[in-house]
Design brief:
heterodimer, A: 208 residues, mainly beta, Porin, 11-stranded mixed β-barrel, 1 helix, B: 191 residues, alpha+beta, Nuclear Transport Factor 2, Chain: A, 9-stranded antiparallel β-sheet, 9 strands, 40% strand
């Protein structure tokens, strides 16, 4: 109750974000990645339990070198009665320092919606991954993943910052699960801070 | 006929040498799960810094490793299941090696790859327990010197794409073993 009182001081949402990411290898340098993500809100001004949105995405991923890739994707978002189309382009690269993997992702996004102007957003994310056992993640081992992302919306001239600590588990050679928190601070530059705290669960599946 | 057989065997050997993929599962263990003989050796050697114990399952079977820092270098001491010392690996930078060795390593990698980037160099010492201890940790030159190899992790370009390799070079600069390391990009760091 105390926690909810604290949250009620600012514009704060709490919720659950389950996601499944399914990747299928096309050839040595490309893969097709599909995902589905749902959002359920637990708290938005009052305690509730409401379905908020559904994202369905499809991405073509092209490996341009051993540790770099370009991804081209599309997300279809259903939010209440709205349908939002989004296209995006990623540039990813990965650095490895002994047991630590550092992934960088640069993104350009375009949002399309009926009777609304096309919106643009750019974002950068750095993710650190470290096995909790030994120097690399093996099957049936846990790992930590920490992410920090910065998103800038051009129309709103607004910055959003995300912090994402996750605990991961390599279930088999082909799949892993991650659980954690996705904490988002929005409207950072406009002084009307919005806090979002999502509990995340992601299942990554790689098919050969 | 003999020549044919020889050529086939040579080809097969070449294939084994150059197309194996590195498989290694390493996980942290408690000291009391390592072979007793191995823990006794490490206690006897009395390293000033903390010792971390690991078990390693690889293409060659299960082994145990004690890792520590000594005189600003990382050391990994590998033991068999019965606690016999297999090798000692010392992580170094290329510049720390004698100039002649640096040249041999550079030449070998230039011959093997169109372009390359060094990721890690370890000096591998093979020999008896006492020779290794006296030569490496007490810095007392031994008559029967431990055998020295260089285990190098390198990202190299052979055709069009880069690939990571673990290469074992002898002191003459010849490649003794080469293993491909599975590539790094992973789904959960991209999406």
């Amino acid at each position: 109750m105390v926690a909810l009182n604290v949250f009620s001081q600012a514009d704060t949402d709490l919720g659950f974000l389950p996601k499944v990411v399914l990747s299928k290898k096309i050839n040595e340098v490309s893969k097709w990645v599909n995902s589905i993500e749902q959002r359920t809100i637990f708290y938005d001004e009052e305690i509730q339990f409401s379905h908020n949105l559904l994202d369905i995405s499809s991405i073509y991923s092209l490996k341009i070198s051993q540790n770099k890739s370009l991804n081209f994707g599309y997300i279809l978002r259903f939010r209440e009665s709205e349908t939002i189309h989004r296209t995006f382009q990623h540039y990813n690269f990965l650095e490895t320092y002994n047991a630590l993997k550092v992934g960088h992702r640069f993104v350009l996004e375009q949002f399309y919606q009926k009777e609304k102007q096309t919106k643009f957003r750019t974002r950068y994310r750095v993710s650190l991954e470290k096995p909790l056992n030994g120097e690399k993640i093996d099957v049936k081992e846990f790992y930590l993943k920490l992410g920090n992302e910065y998103l800038y919306a051009f129309a709103e001239k607004d910055l959003e910052i995300r912090l994402t600590p996750y605990l991961g588990y390599q279930v088999s050679a082909k799949d892993k699960v991650e659980f954690g928190i996705d904490y988002r601070v929005g409207n950072f530059l406009n002084n009307a801070t919005e806090n979002n705290l999502w509990f995340r669960a992601t299942w990554y599946i790689s098919l050969q | 006929m003999k020549l044919k057989l020889f050529l086939i065997l040579l080809f097969l050997g070449f294939q084994t040498l150059f197309s194996q993929e590195k498989f290694e599962k390493e996980y942290r263990i408690k000291e009391n799960h390592a072979p007793k003989k191995a823990t006794q050796i490490i206690k006897m050697w009395n390293f000033p810094k903390k010792i971390k114990w690991y078990a390693e399952e690889s293409n060659l079977g299960k082994t145990f490793e004690a890792k520590t820092c000594f005189r600003k270098n990382k050391y990994s001491i590998e033991f068999s299941k019965n606690g016999t010392i297999l090798d000692v690996e010392k992580t170094v930078k290329l510049k720390e090696l004698p100039l002649e060795t640096q040249q041999k390593i550079t030449r070998a990698l230039k011959n093997r790859f169109r372009k390359y980037r060094l990721k890690k160099i370890q000096i591998q010492y093979l020999g008896s327990e006492s020779a290794i201890y006296k030569e490496i940790f007490q810095l007392k030159p031994q008559k029967q010197k431990p055998i020295r190899n260089y285990e190098i992790v390198v990202k190299g370009k052979t055709d069009k794409t880069y690939q990571s390799f673990e290469i074992l070079l002898n002191t003459k600069g010849a490649i003794e073993k080469e293993l491909k390391i599975k590539s790094g990009l992973s789904l959960n760091l991209e999406f």
